[in-house]
Amino acid sequence: MVEKLSSNEITRLYKNTCxxxxxxxxxxxxxxxxxxxxxxxxxxxxxxxxxxxTDLHAETxxxxxxxxxxxxxxxxxxxxxxxxxxxxxxKSDFGESDLFLDVIYVPREHLRLLPYLGVRKTxxxxxxxxxxxxxxxxxxxxxxxNLAEMATLHDGNGHTQKATGWExxxxxxxxxxxQGTLSFPDIDSNKATxxxxxxxxxxxxxxxxxxxxxxxxxxxxxxVEH
Length: 226
Description:
This protein is of the alpha+beta class. It has five helices and nine strands; from the N terminus they run H-H-H-H-H-E-E-E-E-E-E-E-E-E. It has helices spanning about 5-20, 25-30, 35-45, 55-70, 80-90; strands at about 90, 100-105, 130-135, 150-155, 160, 165-170, 175-185, 195-200, 205-210. The chain has a five-stranded antiparallel β-sheet with strand order 1-2-3-7-6. The chain has a four-stranded antiparallel β-sheet with strand order 5-4-8-9, with no helix packed on it. The longest helix is centred in the N-terminal third of the chain and has 14 residues, at about 55-70.
């Protein structure tokens, strides 16, 4: 379906379906979402008692929204927690070579954030150093990387850990959007002064992401529950 429609036709399909049948465009366009969140929204909205659209139309609209109104971090967190996440936990490489990597560190004390970050099942190793990685591209495709083979974690004291696991949580089927968990052996957060992930990506070189330690407690007053 996507290949048969021109860009103008896809835009008209989106507007006729989402901004005329359901609500104004500001509701959609002023609140970007991650690729996985947009797919979830359209899955709900295509029901007969809502927009009532076909699977092919739903897929086309999903791709349009993912392309035009994409957030690099989850949008379902309360406001204070979102500000905290962006200040202390989220790092980005700002899209070198049209491939955007965003990494969110989830300290052991903050594991209750995981459901909001698209991690629905409990992690088997509660002591692992855990990072949520979002990979997005607008023109090319995300390579089928195993990031566990390409990433190392450095603690600021000269200690280096190899990654122990990479689990893909979401991919869009067209190779434009991936999300997964990258894990490392436990770190001594009482001794470490910083964390740095280094990813040696084939054909793209080294990408680095740094966090200062310690990470403060989550802000009080937001309704993020255990």
